[in-house]
């Protein structure tokens, strides 16, 4: 005996829209967390070691490039309000399947490398401050944990993202406050902000 639901019920189920679980505020925090990223903590010292006290210069350049990218996306998403991102825009611009594929593949690979960098930073610099664990083991465990959270559901993964974004942003605010306090109390050296000598940077 067949237990398949009637055709009308299957059609209704297939046509049912996905439930909206991500609001504007949560989406905003998701974007903020994506922009900040884990690299802001793991790369700052390395950048300072390369450029010295003028560490703000490369970050300012990166900010300028990111602003241009954001402005482009704002313009394009208003013209093509569909889910596909850069691949859709490349397809509309060039109408070439190979170019569209390469853009989509590049975007996908950028996500993979970003996840790998975050896992490497977590397993190396971050976790090493608390416990001694092989970097690769910790990195794989981090990726597995992220995968499990995403598999549980979009709502749960977004909640975790909100918590982590708040923690990350709070840490940056604490660092900024410490820097301001050091300058105000005379412990800091504002003149070093213009030094481009890596030898003057403490990493």
Rounded Rg? 22 Å
State the separation between the terminal residues, measured CA to CA.
Answer: 72 Å
Q: Give the rounded overall mean pLDDT.
A: 80
Major β-sheet profile: none
Unreliable runs, pLDDT <50, ≥5 residues?
none
Overall structural domain count: 1
Topology pattern, helix = H, strand = E: HHHHHHHHH
Distinct helical segment count: 9
The count of strands amounts to: 0
Oligomer: single chain
* Computed structural class: mainly alpha
Share of residues in strands: under 5%
Approximate shape: globular
Please bin the fraction of helical residues.
Answer: over 70%
GO molecular function: transmembrane transporter activity
Protein name: Amino acid permease/ SLC12A domain-containing protein
Organism: Cellulomonas cellasea
Transmembrane segments: 26-43, 55-77, 98-119, 131-153, 160-184
Structural features, described:
This protein has 9 helices and no strands. It is mainly alpha-helical and 203 residues long. The chain has one domain. α6 (86-94) packs antiparallel against α7 and α7 packs across α8.
In a few lines, what is going on in this structure?
The chain has 203 residues and is mainly alpha-helical.
């Amino acid at each position: 005996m067949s237990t398949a639901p009637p055709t009308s019920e299957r059609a209704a189920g297939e046509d049912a829209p996905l439930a909206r679980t991500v609001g504007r505020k949560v989406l905003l925090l998701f974007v903020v967390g994506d922009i900040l990223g884990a690299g802001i903590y793991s790369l700052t010292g390395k950048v300072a070691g390369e450029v010295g006290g003028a560490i703000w210069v490369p970050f300012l350049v990166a900010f300028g490039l990111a602003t241009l990218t954001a402005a482009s996306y704002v313009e394009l998403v208003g013209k093509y309000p569909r889910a596909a991102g850069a691949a859709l825009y490349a397809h509309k611009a060039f109408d070439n399947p190979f170019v569209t594929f390469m853009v989509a593949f590049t975007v996908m690979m950028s996500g993979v490398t970003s996840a790998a960098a975050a896992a490497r930073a977590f397993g190396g610099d971050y976790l090493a401050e608390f416990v001694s664990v092989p970097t690769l083991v910790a990195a794989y465990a981090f990726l597995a944990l992220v995968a499990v959270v995403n598999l549980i559901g979009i709502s749960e993964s977004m909640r975790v993202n909100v918590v982590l974004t708040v923690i990350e942003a709070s840490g940056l605010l604490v660092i900024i406050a410490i820097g301001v306090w050091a300058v105000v109390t005379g412990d800091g050296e504002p003149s070093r902000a213009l030094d481009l000598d890596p030898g003057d940077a403490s990493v």
